[in-house]
Each structure stands twice: as structure tokens, then as C-alpha cells.
Amino acid sequence: MPFFRLFTGGILALLCFSLSLPVLAAARSWTSLTPLQHEALAPLSTEWNTLPEKQQQHFLKLAKRYPQLTAVEKKRLHARLERWSKLTPAQRKEARAKYRAFSKVPAESREQVKQMVRQQEADKLAPPASAVLPATPAR
Amino acid sequence: MNNLDLLKIKQLLNRSLTRMDRPTLERLRDSRAQALAQYGVRRTAPAFAWAGKTPWQTLGHTFSGPQKTHLWAVAILFIIFLFGATLYSQQTAEPDTTDVDIAILTDELPIHVYLD
């Protein structure tokens, strides 16, 4: 019957299409990326080809936002991207949840936390107290 | 001639069965039998023949032999397709976290603040 042949053909075509979808969204090699994507994802250049396809897709989405970032934000992104890529999905999920929760905190409290973190970061960067003490003159 | 007969039949059918006389009913029965003989059993299966049967029984009655196998093959393929499509959509339909991620990666606070 022509109807059944047509129907079966249609189903087979849909099946082939559905099976080909993962192939269409296959992983992309570093060399296949655009110059803009190279610039945005530069810290991941060495490990890019080993990243799971899903993660690559996610980073490509992030790269799309790169042109809209300020110079400082671009610097921060580059500094954090590698560490972010090495986190487990659970850790990333946790970080997102905490970020969302922190965003709901009143601005004043948020600023206090930021001030505290800034202080901690400054303390880390400052040389140890003993190193800055003037050498005692020999007697 | 044929059109005229059909019209007559329509008019008769529109009237209540109780108002039909026996010879008319006989003629209608004969006409139906002739129509059935012309179009074959499968094509002329009356709608009321499906009454009280499940869709599967109806399909089993309507399709037989190779057609039935074909129908099963199509149904199985369709189920496989649905299963594949569902799996694929489940894998890809995760919420988009790009906004939050870009915010975390460019925020003044370092990542470890959100991890510890």
C-alpha cells in the first residue's frame, strides 16, 4: 500500500534525523573556533579538545558574551575560566546556587562581604610582616 | 438514474423506520447487499461494526496478514523514535546557566567564595 510505504518512509526519515542530532552537535576542535572565540576562551586552549562536548557548547555560549564585557571583566574571566572548567558539575551547581542566594542579600550586606573579601585578598598579597621589618643593627 | 435512486434512498432513510413499509425495507436490504458485493468486505465494513470493540480489536479486524505486520513495524519504529526524541530532549533541555556563569566569572568576588 502506498500509504504504508510513505508512512514507514516518514518514520524512518524522522528516526535517522533524531539519530543524527547528536552528531550535528558534535564536539568542535580548537582550530575550528573563530578568532573571537579563541580570544574569549584562550585560557582553555590547551585542554579544549579534551573537554566534553556539552561543556564546550556551554563555553561557546559564554564566549558570545565576551565582546560585551569590560576590560576588567575580561581579565577576571580569563583568570577564572580554567579553574571553572575544572570544577565538577556539582561544584558549579553549588556555586550558582550560592551566587543566586547572595544576589538576594541586601546591597549593604553584600558590600560588607565584598569589603571583607577585598581585605582578605589584600592580606594574602601583602608580604609577611617579618619581611618588612627593618633589619636590627648589629651591636 | 443512479442519482435518483440515491435520492430516494436518502429520503427514505430520513423517515422513521417505523413508518417504512416492509417492501421498502426489503428493497433497502437488497440495495445494501448489492453495495457490499461491489465494494468488498473490508471497504464496506459499516461503522457500527466497530461498536463495542477496542481500537486494537478494530485494527486487528481492519488489518490482516502482511498489513498487520507492517502496522506493527511502523508502531515499533514510532515508539523507538519517540523514545530517542525524549532521551535527546532530556539531555539537551537543561536550564541555561550562561547568565549566572558569566556573572560568577566576572564578579568582583572570586569563585572560591561561592565554593567554600
Which SSEs are present, and which pair or pack?
The complex is a heterodimer of chains A (139) and B (116).
Chain A: H1 2-24, H2 35-40, H3 53-65, H4 71-86, H5 89-103, H6 107-125, H7 129-132
Chain B: H1 2-14, H2 22-39, H3 55-62, H4 66-92, H5 98-106, H6 111-115
Description:
The complex is a heterodimer of chains A (139) and B (116). With 139 residues, chain A is an all-alpha fold. Chain A has a domain at 19-104. Helix content of chain A is 69%, strand content 0%. Chain A has helices spanning 2-24, 35-40, 53-65, 71-86, 89-103, 107-125, 129-132. The longest helix of chain A is centred in the first third of the chain and has 23 residues, at 2-24. Chain A is elongated, with a radius of gyration of 25 Å. The termini of chain A are far apart. The mean pLDDT of chain A is 82. Chain B has two domains: 1-44; 54-116, no CATH class. Chain B contains six helices and no strands. The radius of gyration of chain B is 32 Å and the shape is elongated. By secondary structure, chain B is an all-alpha fold. The chains are: A mainly alpha (139), B mainly alpha (116). The interface between A and B is large, with 41 and 31 residues.
